[in-house]
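Appendix B, record 7
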Amino acid sequence: MNRGQRVLFFLAAGALLLPAVLSGQKSGPKKEPKPVKVEAKDLSPKYQDFLKLTTYIMTEKEKDVFFQLTGDRDRDIFVQSFWKIRDPTPGTPENEYKTEIEKRYDHANRTFFRGAGRPGWQTDRGRFYIILGPPASTERFYGQLGITPCEVWYYYTDGRNNLPNHFGLVFFQKSGAGDFRLYDPTVDGPKSLMWQTPEVASLSPEDYEGQYDALKEMAPTLADMAISLIPGEYGYGYTPSPRNTMLIADIIRSPKADINPTYATHFLSYRGLVTTEYITNYVESEAAVAVIPDPIVKANFLSYSIKPARVNAKYNETRDQYYADFTVSVSVKVPGKTPDEFIFQSTRNFPVYFDPKDESRVRANGLSVEDSFPVAEGKYKLTILLQNEIGKEFSIFEKDIEVPPDTGKPRIAGPLFGYRVQDYPLNMHLPFKALERKLVVDPTNTFVRNDTVICFFQVLNAGPDLSEAGQVRLTLRGASGKPENLKTQTVFLKSLPAGPNIPVFQTLDTSGLEPDYYDLAVSLVDGQDRTVAAAQGNLILSPAEAMGHPIANAKGISLDNRFLFLGMLASEYARLNDVERAGAYYQKALALKPDYLRGYVDYAQFLLKAGRIDQCLEAVEKFRDDANLRFEYFSLRGRALKEASRHEEAVAALLEANKIYNSDTGVLNALGFSFHKLGRNKEALAALESSLKMNPNQEDVKSLAAEVSRGLK
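Structure tokens (predicted):
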């Protein structure tokens, strides 16, 4: 077995398995604002040159995207990506295709400009030379009695892109002067290749046989090409073959035929998120996302599972295993905010190893990556960026999510769907887990008849009466509306352990159901048969006999470390400017782990920003004696003292911080302010100017420096 780098291709489960009856459910197109585009004349010369060079090989989608780019950095990256996707040997330093196109372009400009009145690349000969390269042979008819100056280029191909194995192109000087233009047998006809003598002029334009015979007497090979650019293809009465027009169209399309222009759209959407080496290797993906209230941590967690449609894995000889090297970057931001204003960001590495014997399983089922993190209440935009170092592939998944507030009223969280439940220790946190049980999900939400389909949901805030007399009704209904595609089940709450958070893992009855898209309605009903809460989910039952599900990869974390989760929530609420809840979560986290000094640093920074100066000064004393946190101690203490107008003490602390690290603008700005308040303006100006050297875009610091400078004069 060849165990070099190997690409494992597989389709998203269920993508090709549903019958036509399941199609037709389409969402209407969204109206997008009309993009603003630049014009070629407004671009710098190097980009105008790029557009000239690529005129005949660039797709319309690529051109559309390029003209929407507003900065030279994006244009430079686009140019790199444009050539990279066409590189026939991406593992080598040279891009042979780019080199060849440049050679053809230069040759066209040096050779075909004569008599054209325009650059060579804009002529017909220049166009087809750039597209096809030099002909295998050329036959020229210059100065031949009775023949209009013309030349025939002969090409041989491998038959790709719908091109014939052998064909020719004729270029001629109409009326015997000027530029050589492409000859079209149907539009121009053999008559145009001959001098317009009285005998030739008398030939009817429809008399192709007569024109052919007249031309053949003077130039037999030219006469054949005048009727058909594809040797041997003649119509009745020597009428030109319809394939002539099709051939020209196929030639023009040929340099674009193998290019998937979606990379250009992805470039427009994801530039800045991924590097150039990844941008042309976009891979579709599917993901399952759910907000799950954790009954132990007593916080909402966002769990996700993302499955790329294609995986590139490499063989590691030392370990005798294949591996894919995934990196997942997750961000959560408030809609409408600028791209920089996230409440949560994280990047984690997921190296995945599997034995050669499992290759076929990975090929068939694919891989998925799972993770989970706490999330504050609110409405957000979730973005998951999945990158595979092997093959430089990336996927992006985006979704609007809502983490509802806990009102104390009964509520259903979920439902989610999976095909198995696994047991784990109560003290282990994992994605899609509640208490000791974890749902094994497939991001496609697609199942077959042989699958055990499990529905997971949580009943929240049921209360004693509802826990005793309430029930949950599950109604599974097919989108086709057929009566046989309807199932109902009931779960009685008194059969479950009571509590404010009741996780339910219920096997759905799918027996007898036909393949279809299904909606599951989950209704919480009280003892008087009143619906007090409801939720809904969707799944697909496929007609396939069997289906593999992706191999999931997740990292667990012991709940002994749940103080970290509480600290993350504190940070999120701080970014949301919810000071009260942020402070409460910091205190909960530190109460669980009083010796977590880095947590006190974060807490002190929050208190300083919130203006709670006395509490900040109290918090910094917790890590005063830690040698690794000396800068943080003096920096935060000094800035807090400055806010308290205790400037002598502030200067002393800030100078200590500056001795440890003299390039912190926050320390320098605070020093400058306190020096100024103490009347030590020379020292104040030195500190402020040092800060501005590192970051000149500080308008408030510029104003203070100007004020201090005036005071020195």
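Remarks on this record: Residues 135-242 form one domain. The first helix runs from residue 45 to 53.
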